[in-house]
């Protein structure tokens, strides 16, 4: 069996080699008793003998994108607490310092006047950084300072602008809806800072859902994509951009043949709006949703892979106003079925806010149809805030702000966020409440031992009102400068009256 398998593999490889070199047909196997004259295997039209001509035409429009960033980091004395603490000077004394950071990615020019498309994460700083300069480098090494025209975090797209007197080479978006699994594709980018690099492969899957967001639908490819390919183009054999390389699935951090690209049909309209300086608005219902599992479907007599369950409804949003309730199973929106590959989030996000659409759902085993006026989707930051205090038992949410090495986390063991109307609603307090909400508490801190909990509100510190983390930080720093070991916080409890607590500075 090992020999037979090896021989079959050799024949298949040999057949493929012949057809690429000679152009002779190659393809599906035929029966042994078939007419010898038709025992020729033909590859699908378009299988190339080489990608060189295509690459030569397209590569001039693919660019390298680099950023120079200023990143704030927390400095500390590595000898603190030892006899050598003062031997080498102050070494920062815990004060924030800045360092220069860089990012590297790819992009492509989409117009002769120099508009460049890339990923948002390529030109967006991480943490407390700011981007000071964006540089676009052409394949011939010519550098241009780029202006950020617009970016959209939801779709992870950004548009830059570079200028020169002569027209730039550019490429065009194609029709990704025509892409099929098995089609040849070529990726051009700048992995590992090596300069223009070309890889080829096929489309492994179209419209692969790789997350739960409104735009987490991708073209999957086995063309090698690595760090630095982000924002680069994925071309079809006609030289059209059918995808924007965005992410990989890899246990090692390198390419293992599972890469994802944002489909052109999703990207092109957003890019056009960003070029015009328009705000990207998306539809929104105001619900949290869950999948229809096999057991859930069986209990309701639903077909598998159809619909999503409404877990909760946000007060005052589109779903609540139209009568959608928790427990409803939404099976279609505006005549389009809700499926794993066409999620409720995706369907609604692509509807213009203010539009009224029919929504079909199942409630108590019966089908119902409601007319819903779609709302406007909040920003990613607003959505994150809306979920920050949704559940007292969300341990991940409690500890996340403490993992960033911030001053307040180190000195007080607290992670805090300013109160806005969204957070005030979650905390059950008046919308005009001023203060800082406690988002996380280090359980080994004095604040925790004094009973301060997540969802508590800090109204003042040392009898001074605080509405920003910077104000609280300044008060703690002043206390340290005066040699005081603690600060007095006025705390509004989640349940109960406010009170004053002395918290030791760590």
From TrEMBL:
Domain PDZ: 281-347
Record keyword Ribonucleoprotein present: no
Family: Belongs to the peptidase S1C family.
Main location: periplasm
Matches recorded under Pfam families: PDZ_2 (PF13180), PDZ_6 (PF17820), Trypsin_2 (PF13365)
Repeat listed as a keyword: yes
Official protein name in the record: Probable periplasmic serine endoprotease DegP-like
SUPFAM superfamilies: PDZ domain-like, Trypsin-like serine proteases
Entry superkingdom: Bacteria
Enzyme class per UniProt: hydrolase
InterPro entries: PDZ, PDZ_6, PDZ_sf, Pept_S1C_Do, Peptidase_S1_PA, Peptidase_S1C
Region (Disordered): 77-100
Subcellular location: Periplasm
Catalytic activity, EC: 3.4.21.107
UniProt source species: Alteriqipengyuania abyssalis
Catalytic activity: Acts on substrates that are at least partially unfolded. The cleavage site P1 residue is normally between a pair of hydrophobic residues, such as Val-|-Val
Keyword set, alphabetical order: Hydrolase, Periplasm, Protease, Repeat, Serine protease, Signal, Stress response
